[in-house]
Amino acid sequence: MIADSFGRVHDYLRISLTDNCNFRCFYCMPEEEYDFTPASRLMQTQEIIQLAKIFVAQGVKKIRLTGGEPLVRKDAAEIISALGKLPVELVMTTNGTRIAEMLPVLKEAGIKTINISLDTLQPEKFFMITRRDLFHQIRANIELLLQHKIKVKINMVVMKGLNDLEITDFITWTKHNPIQIRFIEFMPFSGNKWTSNKMFSLEEILAAIEKDFTVLPVKAEPNDTAKSFMIPGHEGSFAIISTMTAPFCSTCNRMRLTADGKLKNCLFSDGETDLLSALRKQEDVLPLIRASIWSKKKELGGQLTTHFEKLEADLIHNRSMITIGG
């Protein structure tokens, strides 16, 4: 069991396979020309598997694969197949571009839920956000997942003046489709040009939806990061991840392993623990893991301590989102 000083048991590990991505979304990786981590400094296939086994032996029950874009990694299939043999729930967050070619591997590994990052339902706006003309390919891949009975969650980062007017369009999508839309408050990371006036809050998201739909709350599951809701008569549902205005830190059970083998005990932590170097020196990494999680702050990495409207993003010490892992 891995626990922190506040008694929170950590049994959910997010593993970033790469900081590379075939998109260039400004809130994640703003620069078109981006210096990706050299392959030699990334966790290799067997290192990922070895570390995953250590975490599983300590009680981890769920592993989420993230990136960058995890499926652009050349050995992604090998990694997914190996992790699929572990006694955990294996899930993934992806931009959805390579779903069709990877589907046999995903199914064989027992992946039953996939989160797709999609911030707009307008092809032109999608190109503006991602700088890639792949909207229709992703929509087709979402349909493919549904056809194969894989649960789909759509991650939509809501940004005022950019896509907040599309909230009801996403809700309408759930009418005849068994998907969950996860509206995410815009969060500050290094280089993503976050300002408080771009933030669209939990209350604002709910207000926008309740203008046109009847909204009913859904009972939370243990360790939920999202507040879940349903709309009578809709096959799908929606949830709101309100990190900025109503965080879920008190029940957090998550750990993050970056693509270069650093353990972050919180998305907003200003420090990290180098597991990969220790592993390559054949040192015992378990004491490092335990020490990292034990030192976890009570909430939001100890950095986001003021109301978001007073937050100075430039004073936050962290990586860019793409190098943390979504």
CATH class: Alpha Beta
Low-pLDDT windows of residues: none
The helical percent reads: 25-40%
Strand content: 15-25%
Number of continuous helical runs:
10
Distance between the termini: 24 Å
Spatial ordering of strands, largest sheet: 7-8-9-6-5-4-3-2-1-10-11-12
Number of domain units: 1
Overall morphology: globular
Alpha-beta classification? alpha/beta
Tell me the CATH architecture: Alpha-Beta Barrel
H and E string: EHEHEHEHHEHEHEEEEEEHHH
CATH topology: TIM Barrel
CATH superfamily: Aldolase class I
Q: How confident overall, as mean pLDDT?
A: 88
The biggest beta sheet is recorded as: 12 strands, mixed
Provide the gyration radius in Å.
Answer: 19 Å
State the total count of DSSP E strands: 12
How would you describe what is shown here?
It catalyses: GTP + AH2 + S-adenosyl-L-methionine = (8S)-3',8-cyclo-7,8-dihydroguanosine 5'-triphosphate + 5'-deoxyadenosine + L-methionine + A + H(+). GO terms for molecular function: 4 iron, 4 sulfur cluster binding; cyclic pyranopterin monophosphate synthase activity; GTP 3',8'-cyclase activity; GTP binding; metal ion binding; S-adenosyl-L-methionine binding. Residues 5-224 form the Radical SAM core domain. Its cofactor is [4Fe-4S] cluster. This is GTP 3',8-cyclase. With 326 residues, the chain is of the alpha/beta class. The protein has one domain: Alpha-Beta Barrel (TIM Barrel), CATH 3.20.20.70. 27% of the residues lie in helices and 17% in strands. The protein has 10 helices and 12 strands. It has a 12-stranded mixed beta sheet with strand order 7-8-9-6-5-4-3-2-1-10-11-12. Helix 1 (45-57) packs parallel to helix 2. The longest helix is centred in the N-terminal third of the chain and has 13 residues, at 45-57. The radius of gyration is 19 Å and the shape is globular. The model has no long low-confidence stretch (mean pLDDT 88).
